[in-house]
Amino acid sequence: MPQVAAPLRRLLPLSQTLAPAPLLHLSRRLFAFSSPSFGRPSSLLALAYRGQPGRRHPQPRRGSSTLRKAPKEEMAGGGSKEVAFNRKRAEGNDGRQRGSMELKTRKLNPVNTTCYVQILGTGMDTQDTSPSILLFFDKQRFIFNAGEGLQRFCTEHKIKLSKIDHIFLTRVCSETAGGLPGLVLTLAGIGDEGMSVNIWGPSDLDFLAGAMKSFIPNRAMLHTHSFGAERNASQPKDSVIILDDEVVRISAMFVKPRYHNGAGSFNDIDLKPGDTAIVYACELPEIKGKFDPAKAAALGLKPGPKYRELQLGNSVQSDQFDEMVHPSDVLGPSIPGPTVLLVDCPTQYHTAELFSLQSLSCFYEDSLDQRESGKKVNCIIHLGPSSVTKAVDYQNWMKRFGGTQHIMAGHEIKNMEIPILKGSARISSRLNFVCPQLFPSSGFWSVKPANDVMENDKSTSSEACGSVSAQNLLKFHLRPYAQLGLDSASIPSLFTYKDIVEELVSEIPEVREVPEQVRKFWQNNANIKNIPPAGSRMLMVEEPWIGQKSDKLDDGSQKHPRDNQEIPSCVEDATREDMEITFLGTGSSQPSKYRNVSSIYINLFAQGGILLDCGEGTLGQLKRRFGVNGADEAVKSLRCIWISHIHADHHTGLARVLALRSKLLRGMPHKPLLVIGPRPLERFLNAYSTLEDLDMQFLDCRNTLKPSVDAFLSENVTGSATPQLENTMFAPGSRMENYNRKPASPRDTTAFANFKEVLQESGLEILYSVPVVHCPQAFGVVLRASEKVNSAGKAIPGWKVVYSGDTRPCPALIDASRDATVLIHEATFEDSMKDEAIARNHSTTKEAIEVGTSAGAYRIILTHFSQRYPKIPVIEEVDMEKTCIAFDLMSVNLADLPVLPKVLPHLKVLFKDELVVEEADEMQEAAAVY
Fold this sequence. Notes:
The protein is an alpha/beta fold. 26% of the residues lie in helices and 16% in strands.
C-alpha cells in the first residue's frame, strides 16, 4: 500500500494522548465545507461509491484483507488552514501559556427556540453507569451526567459533543462522572485553541477536580463550579439557582440520605463525599401571549423593530403619542413556560429528604403555592434505580405532580435486552455466529425472548399515572409549545440475535458454511496439534490470508500453514479451566463505535482474575461479555489490576471497577485490591479515594521490575525491595534515563506481602513489569504460571503471558518475551506508517510480529489498533502462522491456542465488503452534521 501522506497522519486518532482522544469525525468535521459535492471531498468519492454502477473506483489490491486509499487532506476555507486534533495541546506539551481554554459563548435565541430533553442511554444495558440526559436548545446544549461510555454512545448516534456548553452532575461518583476525563481531554484538542466546558456539581465536585488534575496536564482544561457549600440566605435552604438566562433557569435542590439507627437521623457531619444527590429543575421562560397588531396600531406604533421588542417583553415609546407601550398592552395572556425535573434518588435513604424538599412545593398539584404561581412540571425524568422508584411511597409522591409525564430512566431488568452500542453488538453477534468458540454469546442476550421480559415488566413499570420507561434517544419536546410531549421518532429500532444472523446470511450467503468449518477445528484439535502430512486435506479458506501466496495442492486442497513450532507442553496438557484471555478493549486513543480502549481480563477461573489496563468502559465491557451478575462475580474475584502507563485511555475505567468491588464486598471479609501501576497513578487514586471508597493498595511498577521481584521471592525479605536499575532501560546513559533519574522509593512492606499473596492465590510463579519505550514510566508485564503435574505425574512448566502495553519494539520486551506462550503486543499503525509509529512511540503490525518471532513466542495476538481501522486492521504481506488479531469481547482459552491462527482466515469473510475506507465515509457523514 502506498505511503500515507504526512499531512493526513496528523488527522489520525492518537493513542499517545492522555485520554480517549477526540471522536474520530470531530477532527475532520470541516472536510465537508471544502467540496462542492454535498460536503463529500472529491478525493473520497470514488472510494465512497465503490461498486456502484457508473462510479469510478480503484482496483483492489490482491492478497490483502482490506483496502485503503488515503484521502488527501482537505483544508477549510479554500485550503488555507488545517483542522486537526492537537495532540500536543491535549497533552499539555504545546509550550504555550494559557490562562484558560476557549469556553463557548453563543448568541441566545429566546424566541421560537427549539428545545427538548433526550435520553442518552449510557449504561442502561449493562447498568454500570447512570444514563445521561441532553437538554437541547438551538443555541445551547446541556448534559446531565457523563458516565463511562458517553463518548462512544454519542459517536455512534452523532450527538454533537463539541456543542456542549455545560455538564451537570446529579451525584459526584464514578457512576455519573466516569466519562468526564476523556470528554475534557477530547474537547481540549479541538479547534485552534482547544475547547472546554463548564462542569457543575455539589461541593463534592472539588474532590473529583483535584483527582483529575493528577493526570490532566493543563488545569485550564477544567472549568468546574461547585455549589452548596455556602448558600444564599434569600433562597430556600435546600435550593440554589445555578444558571439563569433568556432561555432557561436551572436550579439545584440537595437530597441527602437519612439513616435511621436508633439514635435518630444522622446530621451533616456524618455525610461522606458522594452521598449528596441533586434534583435539577429546568424552567423555561413563560410563553408570551399572541401579539395583536391592531392594538399596537391603536397605541400609535408603526410596524417594525418595536414589535419585536414588545414580543421580547420590553416596553417601547409610541411613535404617535407621548406614552410608553407595555407588552401587556398588545400581547394576549401568557402561558407558564415548560418545566422539566431531573430526579436522582439513588437509595431508599434519600427518599425522606426528597419528599420534604421545600423547593418542590410550588410544583405539587395540591399545594397552595402551585395554585398561586401557576407553575406546572411537564416532565420528570427519574434517574434512580427501579428498586427505589417502584416503592409505594415513591409512586405516591409522583402522583402529587398531577398529570405530569414521568420518564423512568433508572436501571430495570429489561434494559439488558436492548444493547446501547448497536454497532458493537452487531459485530460481536456476527463473530459469535462464525466462531462461538472465540466469541461466546454476549451477556446482554437473554436466554428467554426479549418479549417475555418486556411483558413481565409492564405491570410494574406503569404503576404511576403517566409514566413510561426510558428508551435510547427518546425525546420530550418543550419548544415549540405546539409540539409539547413525547417524541419516539429517534428511538433506534430493536433487533435480536436472530435478526443479525439473518441479515448476515442474506448479505454473505457463503458464510453459512463457515461455522461448521470452524467447529471442526475444535473437533480435531488433538490432530491439529500434531502437524499432518503435507498431502493431508485441511479445512482452510479458499482465499489465502493476508497476502500469502496460495499453496494449494493438486487436488485443490489447501496445504497446512508452515507452522513448525512445537506445541508447548503447558498448552498440550491444558484444561479449559487453566487460563483464558478476554479482550475488553482493543482500540487505541478513544472509544469508538466498534472498539473500546485498552483492557484485558486474564481469567484464572477458580483462582480469580487479573486486569491488564483498565480503560474507560472496562466494567461495561465485562458486563457485555459475562452479563451483569457474571461481571459482578469477576470483579469480586479480582486478584490485582496492573496498569501500563498514565495515559487515560489505559486507566480511566479503574475507579469505577474499584468502587464497585468495594460496594460488592462491603460487610464481607476481604483484603484491599492490589493495584500495580506507574507512580502518577497513585496520586490520582489517593485523591479520588476521598470521594469514593476504592479499597485498594498501590504498588509502583518500578518496585515490580524483575530484579526486585526475584530478590523478594527468593529471599525472605521483611523490608521492601528497592529496584535495581543498572540492567534496565532506566540505567544511567540509557534512552529512558531522563524519564526516571531516581529509583522508586521503598514501599510499605504490607504491599509486598499482599503482592506475594496475590501470586500464590493466582497460581502464578512470578509477575513482573518491564520498562518499555513509550512515555515516562511506561511498562509491559510478564505473567508466568506455576508448574503443574499432569495425569502421568510429569511436571509441566506453567504458561507465560506477556503484554507489551504501548511501546516501540525494544530489547527489554523481546528478552522478557522469550518462549512466551502468548505475546499480546500493540500494533497501532499499519506497516506503511512506520514514521508515525516512531514519532509516537508505537509499533507497526510487522514490528509487533517481529518482536514475537524473534522472542520465540508460541502465539502473538495483536491489539491496540488505531481507530482508523474500525473493524479489521490493514495487514499486508505478513506471516500469520502464529498471529491473531484481537477483537473486542474475544476470549482465547489456553487450550485453543493451537487452532487460533487457523480460525482467523475464516473471520475474514465477514469483512470482505467492509473496507477500512468505510470509516472515511462515516467521517464525512459526521462532518455533514457537525
